[in-house]
Amino acid sequence: MIAESETPDERDARRAHAGKSSGETYAATLRQLAPDCVIDIVQPADDDAPAYAPEDLLRYDAVFLTGSPLHVYDDTPAVRRQLAFMRAVFAAGTPSFGSCAGLQIAVVAAGGRVRKMPDRMEAGIARRIVATAAGRSHPLLADRPGTWDAAAIHGDEVEQLPDGATLLATNPVTRVQAVEIRYDRGIFWGVQYHPELALGEIAIALRRQADDLVAAGLAESDRHVEAQADLIEALHREPDQRAHRWRLGVDGELADEERRRREIVNFLAALPALDRRPAGAVAPAG
After folding, report:
1. Both 91 and 233 in a single domain?
2. How far apart, in whole angstroms, are the C-alpha atoms of residue 137 and residue 115?
3. Catalytic (active site) residue 37
4. 96, 61 in Cβ contact below 8 A?
5. How high is the pLDDT of residue 277?
6. Looking at 6, 10, 180, 196, which residue is catalytic?
7. I want to staple 256 with a disulfide (CB 3.0 to 4.6 A). Which of 245, 252, 272, 275 is the partner?
8. What is the mean pLDDT of each run of 10 residues along the chain (286 residues)?
9. Same domain, 18 and 143
């Protein structure tokens, strides 16, 4: 199952710019990695979304939570519905994976906190991500080098992890870059960056958020945002082009599609070993 946190208007806007909603992007990525998989896409944040009970989720091998413009600290009906859905996922014990807002939803559903990033954003490329001591031996980050860059665009971040969470990776801009959360019967693996996205989609996102990037001081003008987006788009078209990598200061961890998706690949490989906790397991406090 893929759970979109975008509202209908946001899904339509993303399709108009990128050709797919966030859930449709995830589905395309998963079908490339696991061609025989069967996927249901749901929209738990929508006004007319059904209320999912834990037993509704038991038949799924995994649940994926997408990114979106959702601000998890806003007390809105859409946020409350998304959090209720994630708590049902935890109660079902179905393993789950999320990126960006998907990570933040899981954090808050399990008792943690998310905030607007103070006076900054992380946009285009998350630089110098490093695994923590726990992350260096964690299967989510298997085969990642000592430090790596990843596709990212976000203005919110995890402020406090919940009980039952293990920080797996960090960088100088955003402390929580990768995490495991064990809550109720469930286990969640997530990242603040976007292993599911093509670099062309990151370029589109930069152009769409040009005003925010200028306001955050990451660019002096829309023209500078456009120039950076053009470089990322060029790398998307020619990932092996050494000149593009040099101009962006990146290597194959970002440029190569297979390596960029490593966390999703690792999660899929680990699914058979992710034991569901027994019924009646007590949720951590908070």
Report:
1. no
2. 29
3. no
4. no
5. 66
6. 196
7. 252
8. 93 92 96 96 95 95 94 96 97 97 98 94 96 98 97 96 97 97 97 97 95 92 96 97 97 97 98 73 45
9. yes
146 and 42, same structural domain? yes
Within a domain: 209: yes
| Structural domain boundaries enclosing 219 | 199-255
Place of tokens 């699914």: 271
The predicted pLDDT at position 280 comes to 45
pLDDT at position 80 is 96
Residue of 138, 154, 194, 244 marked catalytic: 194
Q: Residue 120: what pLDDT?
A: 87
- Is 196 in the active site? yes
The per-residue b/e assignment along 215-249, b for 16 or more CB within 10 angstroms, e otherwise, is ebebbeeeeebeebbebbbbbbeebeeeebbeebe
Catalytic residue among 100, 154, 180, 233: 100
Q: Give the predicted TM-score (pTM) of the model.
A: 0.93
- 252 DSSP β-pair partners: none
Is 100 labeled as catalytic in the residue annotation? yes
Q: Are residues 150 and 236 in the same domain?
A: no
Q: Are residues 117 and 184 in the same domain?
A: yes
For residues 204 and 138, state if they share a domain. Answer: no
